[in-house]
Amino acid sequence: QVQLVESGGGLVQPGGSLRLSCAASGFTFSKYAMMWYRQAPGKEREFVAGISSTTLRPNYADSVKGRFTISRDNAKNTVYLQMNSLKPEDTAVYYCYAPNFNSWGQGTQVTVSS
Predict the structure, then answer these.
(1) CA dihedral sign of residues 99, 49, 47, 85
(2) What is the tens place of the pLDDT at every residue in 1-57?
(3) Other CB atoms within 10 A of residue 45 CB
(4) Exposure pattern of 79-96 as b/e (b: 16+ CB <10 Å)?
(5) 48-55 long-range contacts, Cβ below 8 Å, gap at least 24?
(6) Mean pLDDT of all residues in the chain?
(7) Please, what is the end-to-end C-alpha distance for the chain in angstroms?
């Protein structure tokens, strides 16, 4: 079955960087788009970034444009989220999502605080 396992979260100071990874299994990874979502305490889950399987063209939420970069390595069945210039409002649990399978990872906590 489809499995998505996130890693790379943690505590970082404002202005810092983190790189999240999502290892996928159970499907032909290279054929499908992948996405990142996040959910802050008391808020709904929101879209952060997505990347297609073919053109590899990414798209981003306005709140992260210019700071976050989504990428994928099809040889490793892994999608990444490079997060730079982090802000306290980026604090959330970050989830990997495979939309064609409606499948979510378990999430990884990102906390931006001094």
Answers:
(1) positive
(2) 999 999 999 999 999 999 999 999 999 999 999 999 999 999 999 999 999 987 778
(3) 15
(4) bbbebeebeeebbbbbbb
(5) 48/81, 48/94, 49/81, 51/79
(6) 96
(7) 40
Q: Which residue, chain included where needed, has tokens 């960087």?
A: 17
Joined tokens for residue 23: 């290892």
Alpha-carbon 15 to chain mean position:
18
SS3 sequence, the chain?
Answer: CCEEEEECCEEECCCCCEEEEEEEECCCHHHCCEEEEEECCCCCCEEEEEECCCCCCEEECCCCCCCEEEEEECCCCEEEEEECCCCHHHCEEEEEEECCCCEECCCEEEEECC
Percentage, residues of the chain above pLDDT 70: 99
